[in-house]
Specification:
Radius of gyration: 29 Å
Helix content: 40-55%
Strand content: 5-15%
Strand order of the largest sheet: 7-6-5-8-9-10-11
Distance between the termini: 70 Å
Length: about 600
Amino acid sequence: FSHSNGSSDSNPDAYTRLLLDVLRGRSATFVREDELRRSWEIFTPLLHKIERENIRPVIYKRGTRGPPAADDFITEKTGYIRNKDYVFFSDGDVKRKSNNDAYGQVDIGVYGLSVMGQNFALNIASHGFDVCVGNRSPSKVDATVKRAESEVGGLPLIGSSGPEDFVKKLKRPRKIIILVQAGKPVDETIKALSKYLEKGDIIVDGGNEWYPNTIRRSKELEPKGILFVGMGISGGEEGARMGPSLMPGGPKEAYNELEKILTSCAAQVRGGPCVGYVGPIGSGNFVKMVHNGIEYADMQLIAEIYDILKNVVTLGNDEMSDIFAEWNKGKLESYLIEITASILSKKDDITGKGHVIDYILDKAGSKGTGKWTVQEAAQVSVAAPAISGALDARYISSRKEERVHASTILKGPEEVPAIHNEELIEDIGRALYAAKICSYAQGLAVVKSASDEKDWGINIASCVHLWKGGCIIRASLLDRIQEAFTNNPDLPNLMVDPTIATELEACIDSWRNVVIACTNHGIPCPALGGSLNYYDSYRTASSPANLTQAQRDFFGGHTYERTDLEGPHHSTWTSAHKDIGNIKERTKGNR
C-alpha cells in the first residue's frame, strides 16, 4: 500500500499505519513490545503474499482507509478485525458514527475520568476496542473525547450524557470499569449504574479498595445477577495509558468475558501480559494491597540508603544519582531505582539554585494500603517488619514539628567521622539488594497465608508475574522470585529457595556492616534493620520464645508446649499459683 500524496498520518486505522511505517523502514515507530509483536503478526503474511505472487501496490486516495479487500485478507491471515462499528468505508470516505448509532454496540465502558480513568480508557481504545466513557461531571467526558479525537487517526471512544445513556451504549453482557475514589464514591457509582444493568452484566472496580468492601459489594449485587470484580491497577498515570499491571479477582466467568480486553491493554513482558485471573472475589484487591505494602518497604529502603550515602558517606546529589543509575544497570534494576537516579539529579527550576530534592519537606503521606497490609499481616500471623517499619517511618515523618523540637533535647552519637570509601558503597548496594529480597519475602508470605486461610488458591508464581511490568515495584529481581515459586509452588518462604539463599549469603556481611554504620551514626533504618532481623529470626532454630511463653504461663496460665512431651502444659510456678483445671478447655482457640 502507499499514499498517492502525503503522509500516512491521515489514515485512521492503526494496522495500515503500521504497515506503511514498516514498509518505509520506520522501526522507531514501535515503542512497546506488544505493539511490535502485534504489528509483525499483521504484516508478515502480507509481505510474504506480496513476494510470492508479485503483487503490485495499490494507490489509494489520501484521507481514505484503503481498499476494503485489504480488510478481508488481513482478517483471514491474522485474525485482526477492523472496528466497523466506529468508522466505516463509504464511497472512499471515512465517517464516524454518531453517539446514538452506538447504542448496544460499544465493547466496554469506563466510568470515572480522573487522569487514571482517562488514560486507561484511551489505552483500551488504542488497542482497537470501542470504549464509552462516563463521569459525574460532563466536562471530563468532553475532555476525554477530545483527547481521543486528537490521537493520530482518532480512537474509537465516545462519551455519554449520564448513567442510563452510558449503559445503553454497551454490548451485552455489559462490561464496565469504574475508576473513582475508594469508599462511598464507589457505592454511589454502583448504585447509579446498577439500576440500568441486568443479569450477567459485569462491574469492575479498579480503585485501591479494601478487599472486605469488595466482598460486600459482590454480595449486594448477587440478587440482581450482576457479576462484580475487584481489580487492582498499578503503574500510575503513565502505566494506565501505556500498559499497567492488572490484578483482577472475582467470578471466573466475568474474567473470561474481560480477558481479551485486559490482556491487550496490560503491560507486556517476556512471558506474556501482566494480567491474569488472581482468584475469587477479594483476592485481586488483596494482592494489590500487598503490592502497595511491598512498595512502601521498597521506597523506605531506598530512602534509608539515600540517608546513608548523604550523611555517612557525605556524597552530593549528583554523585548519589550516578550511583543509583549504575545500580540500575545490574541486579538492583527496577523502576524505583531508576526514578531515584532521575529525582536526585533534577535541578530546581523555581530558584535556579541547587536540586529540587533539597527543597522538599520531609513529611511523607500515605493513603491507607500500607496500613491495611500491616493489619492483614497481623491477621494471618505473618511478620512483615520491613512493611511495618516503612509505615512507622511515614508516621514519624509526619510529626515534623515534634521532631524538630526533640532534636534539641534528645542526643545522638557524638561526632562520628564520615566514611569515604568504595568498599562501603559496594556494601550499601549489596545490603539494599538483600533487604529488597526480604521485603518481597514478607509480602508474598502474607499473600500465601491469606490465600491458604481463605481458600483463594492464589498461584504465587503467577502473582509475581503480574508485577514484572507496568507497576511501581517492577524489578529484574522478580524473574528470580518467579522462578523460585515456579520450581517449588509450596515454598514456605522465598528466602529458603536455594538460589535466593545463596544470594542472601553473599550479601550478609555487607548488610550487617551497613546496619552497624547506621547505628554508629544514629541513622534510623527500620526497613534495612527490620529485614535483617527478619532474616536472622527466620534462620534461628532455637529462639528465646521459650522464656516468653513461660512468662505468659506464669502471669496468665496460658500454658506452654514441651520439647519432650506432647500436648499443653502448665506449671505451678510459686505457692501462689493454683491448678488451672482442664488445660485443653483453657487452650481452645489458640493460634
